[in-house]
Amino acid sequence: MEMKNSLYKNNEDIFKRMLLIRVFERAVDSLFADGILRGTSHLAVGEEATAVGAAAGLSDLDYVSSNHRGHGHFIAKGGDPYKIMAELFGLPSGYSFGRGGTQHMADFSIGFLGMNGITGGMLAIATGAAFSIAYQRSDRVSLAFFGDGASNQGTFHESLNMASIWQLPVIYFCENNLYAMSSPARELVSVENIAERAKAYNIEGIIVDGNDPEAVKNAVTNAADKARGKGGPTLIEAKCYRTLGHSRGDLRVYRTREEEEEWTKLDAILTFKQKLIDTRELKEEECGALEQETENNISAIIDRCKSEAKTLGIM
Questions:
Q1: Which CATH number fits domain 11-311: 3.40.50.970, 3.40.50.300, 3.40.50.1860, 3.90.1150.10?
Q2: Rounded mean pLDDT of 202-220?
């Protein structure tokens, strides 16, 4: 089985996909604020490098399971931004025909096993997918995105234990954005680094800078290669930060604006863009053109969804 990734050929592809997630999520935030979209959503502004870096380290055939903050994971794996937006608008053209909403979308054709509103639920799904891979003697691997809060769930410990015993081809990818809803991870997790918990299950634990998409890609690539070589599971902890609140309406009273400002300086969109300019992989004007093109594409998607919603009488 040929392992290839058709989405990410170079760093420009990584930057473009990160931009796409950022602009998409910012647009969704505005649509909720304006009352055009209703309910709630969990946005991944600030965590683009973890989603894209991880997806870039996998092959087209590999599986990904996601959590409640999954739009970015879906787009990073190749999900169609129009169909995701259409789902949020409640349109029949959405991934779940407009009936699932933000936490209930999947596309098995690209290996995206779906988002999950149950904290820790995606861990068991990815482990089950890895068992099926091993049973079929396939070269695929499975990756579960989860947050620091989910590392305290029973499914985390059960999944890592089972995967270790059976040496399953699975990557447990923790996006440690420092907060489980409003609770600091330092007050809820018994170890300084979640990657340390790998020791209890006799598997490898790795810490990576979640604002460096290349570092994330390399860590996932190595873990995937090891899994394909029957080397078993890996726990990767990516240190990152969500710019917005846990969900819509979260005023972030539990953290300071000074803390947010410090993390903003590390924003992967800004730092990776500057790196591409410094290494002459892209010119500054080319980055600007890509940013404008992405804004235009998402605006066109929103206009299309609004038009369809009006036609159907649901807006």
A1: 3.40.50.970
A2: 98
